[in-house]
Structures are given as C-alpha cells and as structure tokens.
C-alpha cells in the first residue's frame, strides 16, 4: 500500500516540529527517515500512524494510504503496524498473548476463531524464531527477543503499512546487525510498505530503498542511499552522511591558499570552503605542482578494511581524517609524527545561495 | 573491611531503640485496647458489641465505607488518567488540588460542608426547600468521608502511571483496540496492585474518620452515629469497657487491613521476583 503525505505540518505549542511536508512512498518500499534528534522524524512517523494529529492548515494536510484518505481516521482503524522504540510490549501478558492481542480485540464479526488465532500466532512466532518462548513474559526476554515479539505483534493484524520507530536503537551492535539483516529479508519476503525512523546513517543507508533526510522539521533530501551519498543536495546532508574534512581559504587567480598550503582550483576569487570525504584524501610523500598540502600523521587506527589516519597541520582548524588502503599504508611505512602531503582526489563545495547547490570537481 | 555504620555497638543500639520504641508506642497501646475490652470477661465484651446502638454504628460505618470506596475508585482512576495521559492548561494546579484533603484538617472540612450544605448554608437552603437533608444524616457523613479519602487512590496511581507512560496504551490502539478494551486489558492489569493498595488505604481511613464526621453527623445514637463517634460517646458516659470494645473492633478492622496490605505487598514482590 502506498503512502502519500500532502502539506503535513505540526506545532507543539509555539515550536514548529514539522514544516509543511510532502512525501510519496511507493507500494512495497522500505523507507528510512533519517535525521538528528529533534529533526521531526519521529513526529512524522507518529503522524503517519495517527498517534499524533497534524496541524489543521489551509490547504488542509492529507494522508493517503493507497486511495484511502486516512487523515481523519483514528489510529485503531488505520490498519497500521507500529513497532515502538522500547518495544512497548504488554508487560503483564505472555509472549503468546502479546502477539494474539490484535486478533483478540477485533470486533466479534471479523475475529478469527480461537483455533485460527492460535495457528496464526504460532506461525508468526515461528517466523521470528521465538515459538519456544511463547509462555514467557516480556521481562524474561532479551532486548532483541522483545523487539522480535513486538514485530510479530504488529504483523499479526496484517497491517497495510509497517511503521518502526528507532527499531534497533536500544540494542547492542551485534544484535542490531542481525536484526537489520533479518528485517530486510522479512521485508522482501512479505513485501509490505514500511517506514522506519533512525538517527544512524549506516542503518538508514544499508536498510532503505530510499532515505528521507530530515533536519529541523524539514525534509532535506529524498533519494536512494547511493544517490544520497554521491550527490548530496546540500551541506547538511553531506555532513550528516559521513565524516567530513574541511579546507577553508581564499581563492586568488585559480589558487586556493590557506597558510602555507595551496591547491589549484577552477573557482572565482573570494573566500571558499571545500569539503572532502576521508576516502577522497590521497596521501603521498611529495607535493605536486598543483597541490601543496603538508600534513602530519597524529593517530592511526588499522582496524577494519582500511586504515584510518588522523592528520594535523597548522593551516587546519580541525584535524582531517583519511582512509588509506592497507597496501598503501605499508608502502608509505606510515607512523605517527610522519610528514606527508595530502592530495584531494575529489572535493565538494556547497554554495547555499547559488544554484546548483552542489558541485563535485575532480582534481589531481 | 566493614561497611560504614556497621559497627556492632551502633547496630545493637539502633535495633534496640527501634524495638523499644515500637513496643512502647505501637504494640503496647494495641495490647492495652484488647486487655481493656476483655477486662470484665468475654460476656461483657459481647454484650457491649451486640448492643443495638453499637451494631447500628458498625453497620453505618461499614455502609459508608462501602459506598466511599467505589466513589473514590472511579474518581481516583479518572483523575490519575486525566493528569498522566493528557496535557492541558491547569494540569499542575489540578495535581496540587488533589492534595487539599490531606492538607486541610478534617474538622475544617466538616465545617465547610456544614456551611455549604447545612440548612442555613448556600446550597443547603435550596436543598431544604426541596425537602432534601444532607447534613446530620448519612449522606453528609458519606460526603465528608469521600472528601477526606478521595486523594488516596489518585495518589497511589499517579506516580505509577507516570512511570509506566502511555506507550502500551498506544500500542493497543495501533493494534485496533477500542478505549474500553484498552483500559480493561492493558491499563487496569498494570495498575491493579496500586489500585488495591489505594482501596485498602481508603477503607482504613473511611472507617476510622472522626473529625469531619463528628461535625456533620450530629451523632444521634442509632441514627447517625458511626463507630468512632459511638466510641467517644461511650467513653464520655464512663462506659470504659464499652468504649474499649468498640476500640477493639476498630483496631481489628485496622489489623485486617494491614494484613491485606502486607499480603498484597508480598504477592507483588513475589511476582516481581518471578519476572
């Protein structure tokens, strides 16, 4: 079931939690709402669910599930599944009763027979691999198990859309990884439309078909993870999606100067700030004719697929971070205190006023 | 290594002081009540208790308590729900208002009711014109008892419901549950121990209330005399054994209440240990 939001906004008292938002989510899509805390992502999710009412505006805000206008429909009648951040399991009910709850509160006419309920609950528990814990109480389960019960409970009523609020936020890294993979698989098997909220960029990029990046109650960009990372529309998105190195200086006759460092750029004269990802910084023993960026290695972390190197220089306000392949790391015989030269493979600049807002230029 | 304050001398001193004080101020009076009540034998005790006026006082007291409890229950749950589940202007003030019956002396409460609902009072005057008498009759006793006891249930529930939050109720709503179903199947099971505890406290206070009731009841023997008032009258009449027989009855009710509370706490802690 597709979801369409038109002109949805929200105030809490005098603070605007959500500026007017339009959003289209396609049938079967898994969409992540990503943003720092206070960006309005949870508010947006709760409005989709009906747990929060959008402001009354002109033109009126609308929420559509497929062709069905649910703007004024109560949460209980929206046919959604909602997974809460801290699971919100019914603490006085067993796992079985938790999952069965949505079925047992149905109006008598629609309610399945008790045998049918039993079969469906056990099918769901089997799916989340918890059928052996059916008689346990929530307090006797681990966080990951509780989260899976919570998911089974939400799916029991066969919702049109599944909404998840920071579903893995309270879990440790290993469990989170497992659950993510598991949710992705579940999603492609059952093919429901789902929206989840997260503040973890990695989670959003790994899990989503498309990501909605939000800040200060505004949607900054909606794109596939790939596009988002390679072509961020503005500086906020760029900085939020990963580590960023800053190069500030002034351009004069095609040369950006910053202390004793310089870099040839094809930019008009004036103050300039360039942004680089850690993997866009190449390290070498020599400067080049077009690029002279002397740095000192101050910290090395060789754990992982690449070596993370921290770089400092007196022309830098904040240290840079560079990722280096293990092969290059060994070839350069890198160690702390070593003097090297940075070479941008690529850089980005965001001029907030001029359009197009984002540019990426290749150098060296 | 010993923990701080764990010196044997200090420990013995503190335990000793606690035991002596409890015995002097709590246990001894209780024993004295029963000793006095039975001082002239079981027959005299029984004669005093089975006296028509005493029986009437017992019935009135228990009847008022029986009516007070459901009123306070509904009021307390509604108020706790309102204060913890909604945010509205004046919520804080309301939360403070709940405590007025605790802060005001019961005698003052009784006087206010007399002033308002008595024959010469603002509302009482109008009621009198319609042949409705509240003061110096059992409805007045019920009214002041409800006033004095109404914070107990709400006071028990509010902190608990605040701590539990409304997530489970929201979860129930997303699963399609209607308001009453949610209350009955999700909210109520979560608050039932606090609710029972509140009821026990309400009952204890309703049975024992003296000050407010003494102002509005008129203490007519066989009509508007509650057990505490009856006790006091007997004592004023130099019927010490009768007074202490009533006192023993009240003490018995208190002890039963305490036992109920202890068993509830024990069951609650056992439940917690299990989960």
How would you explain this protein's 3D organization?
The complex is a heterodimer of chains A (364) and B (275). In chain A, a hairpin with a 4-residue loop joins β17 and β18. About 1% of the residues of chain A have low confidence. Chain A starts with a strand and ends with a strand. In chain A, α2 crosses α3, α2 packs parallel to α4 and α3 crosses α4. Chain A has nine helices and 22 strands. By secondary structure, chain A is α+β, with helices and mostly antiparallel strands. Helices cover 25% and strands 34% of the residues of chain A. Helices cover 80% and strands 0% of the residues of chain B. Chain B is globular. Chain B starts with 7 loop residues before the first helix and ends with a helix. The chains are: A alpha+beta (364), B mainly alpha (275). At the A-B interface, β6 and α4 of A face α10 and α11 of B. Chain B: The complex is composed of two ATP-binding proteins (CysA), two transmembrane proteins (CysT and CysW) and a solute-binding protein (CysP). Chain B: One of its GO terms (molecular function) is ABC-type sulfate transporter activity.
């Amino acid at each position: 079931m597709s979801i369409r939001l038109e002109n949805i906004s929200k105030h809490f008292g005098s603070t605007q939690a959500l500026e007017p938002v339009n959003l289209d989510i396609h049938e079967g899509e898994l969409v992540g709402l990503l943003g720092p805390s206070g960006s309005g992502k949870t508010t947006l999710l709760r409005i989709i669910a009906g747990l929060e009412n959008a402001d009354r505006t002109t033109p009126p805000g609308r929420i559509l599930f497929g062709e069905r206008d649910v703007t004024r429909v109560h949460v209980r009648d929206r046919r959604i599944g909602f997974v809460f951040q801290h699971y919100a399991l019914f603490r006085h009910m067993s796992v079985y009763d938790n999952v069965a709850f949505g079925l047992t509160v149905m109006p008598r006419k629609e309610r399945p027979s008790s045998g049918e309920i039993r079969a469906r609950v056990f099918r769901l528990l089997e799916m989340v691999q918890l059928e052996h814990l059916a008689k346990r109480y929530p307090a006797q389960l681990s966080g990951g198990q509780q989260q899976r019960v919570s998911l089974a409970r939400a799916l029991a009523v066969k919702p049109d859309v599944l909404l998840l609020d920071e579903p893995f936020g309270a879990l440790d890294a290993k469990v989170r990884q497992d659950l993510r993979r598991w949710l992705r698989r579940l999603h492609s098997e059952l093919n429901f439309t789902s929206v989840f909220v997260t503040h973890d960029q990695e989670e959003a990029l790994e899990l989503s078909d498309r990501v909605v990046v939000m800040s200060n109650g505004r949607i900054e960009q909606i794109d596939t993870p790939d596009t988002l990372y390679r072509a961020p529309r503005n500086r906020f998105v760029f900085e939020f999606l990963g580590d960023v190195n800053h190069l500030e200086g002034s351009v004069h006759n095609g040369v950006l100067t910053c202390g004793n460092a310089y870099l040839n750029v094809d930019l008009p004269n004036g103050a300039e700030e360039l942004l680089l990802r850690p993997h866009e910084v190449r390290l070498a023993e020599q400067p080049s004719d077009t690029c002279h960026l002397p740095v000192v290695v101050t910290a090395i972390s060789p754990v992982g697929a690449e070596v993370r190197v921290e770089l400092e220089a007196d022309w830098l306000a904040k240290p840079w971070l560079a990722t280096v392949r293990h092969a290059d790391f060994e070839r350069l015989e890198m160690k702390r205190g070593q003097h090297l030269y940075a070479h941008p493979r690529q850089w980005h600049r965001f001029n907030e006023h001029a359009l197009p807002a984002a540019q990426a230029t290749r150098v060296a | 290594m010993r923990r701080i304050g764990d010196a044997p001398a200090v420990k013995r001193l503190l335990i000793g002081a606690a035991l002596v004080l409890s015995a002097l101020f709590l246990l001894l009076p209780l024993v004295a009540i029963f000793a006095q009540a039975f001082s002239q034998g079981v027959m005299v005790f029984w004669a005093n208790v089975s006296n028509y006026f005493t029986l009437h006082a017992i019935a009135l007291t228990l009847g008022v308590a029986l009516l007070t409890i459901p009123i306070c229950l509904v009021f307390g749950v509604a108020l706790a729900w309102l204060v913890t589940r909604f945010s509205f202007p004046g919520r804080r003030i309301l939360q403070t208002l709940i405590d007025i019956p605790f802060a005001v002396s019961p005698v003052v409460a009784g006087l206010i009711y007399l002033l308002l609902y008595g024959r010469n009072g603002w509302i009482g005057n109008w009621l009198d014109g319609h042949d409705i008498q509240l003061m110096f009759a059992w409805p007045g006793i019920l009214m002041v008892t409800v006033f004095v006891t109404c914070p107990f249930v709400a006071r028990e529930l509010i902190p608990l419901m605040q701590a539990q939050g409304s997530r489970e109720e929201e979860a129930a709503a997303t699963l399609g549950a209607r308001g009453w179903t949610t209350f009955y199947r999700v909210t109520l099971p979560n608050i039932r121990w606090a609710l029972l505890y509140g009821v026990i406290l309400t009952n204890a206070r309703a049975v024992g209330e003296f000050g407010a009731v003494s102002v509005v009841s008129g203490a007519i023997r066989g009509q508007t005399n509650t057990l505490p008032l009856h006790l006091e009258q007997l004592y004023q009449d130099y019927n010490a054994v009768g007074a202490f027989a009533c006192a023993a009855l009240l003490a018995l009710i208190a002890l039963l209440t305490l036992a109920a509370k202890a068993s509830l706490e024990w069951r609650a802690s056992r439940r917690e240990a299990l989960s």
